[in-house]
Amino acid sequence: MELQVTTLEGKSAGKVTLDDAVFGLEPRADLIQRMVRYQQLKKMAGTHAVKNRADVSMTGKKFVRQKGSGGARHGSRRTNIFRGGGRAFGPTPRSHAIELPKKVRALALKHALSAKAKAGELIILDKAVADAPKTGALREVFGKLGLSNALIIGGAELDTNFALAARNIPQIDVLPAQGINVYDILRRKKLVLTKDALAALEGRFQ
């Protein structure tokens, strides 16, 4: 598969040939869904907690005699059936992360990249470099390129001016090549890869 390379000014900068083993697969929704679920669960803090009957501040003295009251037998006000008592079987801090084989994760990323390529939502950029960290100037450049909702992947090191200028633009994300992931690819309409990012990706999967 061949794609046109463009510059930030909208000019042609030649063509590149994409590796079919990475960008030419038939996208599988099930693999992509598993990867997104893996990422979202791994991101959860898991710090939820409640007070059980051992944690509430209340007397543990038996408050009603065992027999003769005409009511039920109770030994503590801390139980979950009383107002102010501890909660029974509440959530406790834990990790929500699930296991997913490394090969499946790599394959899911290939399918996400292939999905963008097949949908015509993949753009190859010559380089992502800005002369100054000016958000307004970069917004005008993106407007000419038709980038209103995009994920931009740079090389191993991002250009500082470009990253600073882009971070205040809504619905525009900029990541280094090693930070590319399935969830961020899917949450943005366009995927923009620099030539350095493309080389890093294809080298990663070889």
Would you kindly provide a written description of the structure presented here, covering whatever features stand out?
By secondary structure, this protein is of the alpha/beta class. It has a domain at 2-29 and 101-205: Ribosomal protein L4/L1 (Ribosomal Protein L4, Chain: A, 3-Layer(aba) Sandwich), CATH 3.40.1370.10. 34% of the residues lie in helices and 14% in strands. It has seven helices and six strands. The chain has helices at residues 20-23, 29-43, 102-118, 135-145, 160-166, 182-187, 195-205, and strands spanning 2-6, 12-17, 122-125, 150-153, 172-175, 190-194. The chain has a six-stranded mixed β-sheet with strand order 2-1-3-6-4-5. A hairpin with a 5-residue loop joins strand 1 (2-6) and strand 2 (12-17). Helix 2 (29-43) packs across helix 3 and helix 4 (135-145) packs across helix 5. The protein is elongated and about 95 Å long. It starts with a strand and ends with a helix. The model has no long low-confidence stretch (mean pLDDT 93).
Please give a handful of descriptors for the protein shown.
206 residues; alpha/beta; Ribosomal Protein L4, Chain: A; six-stranded mixed sheet; 34% helix
Helices and strands in order:
Layout: E1 2-6, E2 12-17, H1 20-23, H2 29-43, H3 102-118, E3 122-125, H4 135-145, E4 150-153, H5 160-166, E5 172-175, H6 182-187, E6 190-194, H7 195-205
Parallel strand pairs: 1-3, 3-6, 4-5, 4-6
Antiparallel strand pairs: 1-2
Helix pairs in contact: 2-3, 4-5
